[in-house]
Amino acid sequence: MTVIEREFIGGVCLNVGCIPSKALISAGHRYQEALDGSVFGVQSKGATLDFGVTQDWKQHQVVEKLTGGVSMLFKKHKIDAIMGDAFLKDDHSLRVMQKDSAQTYNFNNLIIATGSRPIEIPGFKFGDHVLDSTGGLNLKTVPKEFIVIGGGYIGSELASAYANLGAHVTILEGTDSILPNFEKDMVQLVLKSFKSRNIDVITNAMAKDSKPVDGGVEVTYTVDGKEQTIKADDVMVTVGRRPNTNDMGLEIAGVEMTDRGLIKVDNQGRTNKPNIYAIGDVVAGAALAHKASYEGKIAAEAISGKASAVDYKAMPAVCYTDPELATTGMTVKEAKDQGIDAKASKFPFAANGRALSLANTDGFVRIVTNADNTIIGAQVAGPGASDLISELTLAVESGMNAEDLALTIHPHPTLSEAIMDDAEVALGLPINI
Predict the structure, then answer these.
(1) Residues 325-347: what's their mean pLDDT?
(2) Which one, of 136, 216, 213, 202, lies nearest residue 173 by Cα?
(3) What's the CA gap between 288 and 300, in Å, rounded?
(4) Tens of pLDDT, residues 128-144
């Protein structure tokens, strides 16, 4: 088995995506805790941030440990890694271009997992002080003023991280709300938190142009047709990502594509060429690392002859803002749009003992059930949402009834008790509210 990689082993997630961004988010939380623990009676004096040390820890103790682990797994499983750019010659061979050489390889089966790249918009050519998400993760110093264009997952997470690290952040969002993939009451919690943490959110703002000024950047944008300018040390553009499917010979190999540049696949990840598969950001669906990993397993099983197929019944999604947001399965609206008689139950973290002891009570657990009290979806906003959503994903995936969760003994005091409590609400038998 052979892996061909253009840039770095481990892909976007491990190197310039999920993992390093969570490291910066964690560092920001630690800094804020060091600055102010007065609610617990902890008096901090003179906390400072050495961002160079932060970045060094992120790179060497987090990113490189994980990518090094992947390289070791390659060796263990006798997987060859070839660095270079792959270009398909036909549906059974490709050519790998390196700096000073090129080599042709034949293959029996191929999985395309080339991922995606940040979209560059007119007037914001990536370079000094105009950054994509990779540049935003690798800043040498924390900017005093930081502009984020685009209030989706990536923009909101890094805005939150840099605000906690000491920056004043302005988010310019082109639509009427940030985080459009989450329900409004969840987003409102984030907006409330942003307002208290030096993050300004300007919606319906169309970014027009940027120019260098005084060692920083000036951004011009319009709101309601009125042109305005704002200055910052750096601006980061996070308006979306584009699949890496161009300039790799897909059309020569006869692989069918969509108008959006995505690769058409069946429920095993197989393209119209029976020996070529595609997964992750280059196929339809959410651009999530765990979705790509799941699809990769299905494709590998299909190649080995198993009758595996993808099932997106419960695809969790998480945004690591403050508070964290997580969703899985269907919302009430999505269920009703499909003609399902659905209802939602809600339990607040303000009534959860562990959340109170953490001094972190904003948010809730919401369970979506059908007429038979079968769990078909859930959302969590608040402390530990990124971890709590897994139990609820299992409940959706397994077709559990709310009673199954209500009768499952949860340890006390824990955040997970809010799931049990909400299941009791769903059954009309609330105990703790």
Answers:
(1) 97
(2) 202
(3) 19
(4) 999 999 999 999 999 99
Q: Which of 168, 290, 410, 412 is catalytic?
A: 412
Beta strands, E only, 233-374: 234-237, 241-243, 276-278, 317-319, 325-329, 343-348, 364-369
Task: Kindly list the domain boundaries of the chain, sorted by start residue.
Answer: 2-117+242-303, 130-239, 317-426
Cis? peptide before 122, omega within 30° of 0: no
Q: How is residue 333 written in tokens?
A: 């609206």
Structure tokens at 107: 């293959």
| d(C-alpha 108, C-alpha 419), whole Å | 47
Q: Is 130-239 a domain of CATH 3.50.50.60? A: yes
- The 8-class DSSP code of residue 411 comes to P
Level-2 CATH architecture, domain 317-426: 2-Layer Sandwich (3.30)
Q: How far is CA 294 from CA 105, 227, 301, 308, 397, in A?
A: 27, 45, 11, 11, 14
Domain 130-239 matches domain 317-426 at the CATH topology level: no
Residues in the chain: 433
Please tell me the predicted confidence (pLDDT) of residue 44: 81
The half-sphere exposure of 275 on its side-chain side, counting CA atoms within 13 A, is 10
| Residue 300 φ then ψ, to 5° | -65, -40
Mean pLDDT value across residues 197-206: 96
Q: What is the DSSP string of 196-213?
A: HTTEEEE-SEEEEEEEEE
Beta bridge partners of 37: 42
Write down the pTM of the prediction.
0.95
pLDDT value of residue 176: 96
Which residue type occupies 75?
K
Percent of the chain with pLDDT over 90: 97
Known catalytic residue at 412: yes
**pLDDT at site 337:** 97
Quickly count helices (H) and strands (E) in the chain.
14, 22
80-103 pLDDT, tens per residue?
999 999 999 999 999 999 988 999
Judge: domain 2-117+242-303, CATH 3.50.50.60.
Answer: yes
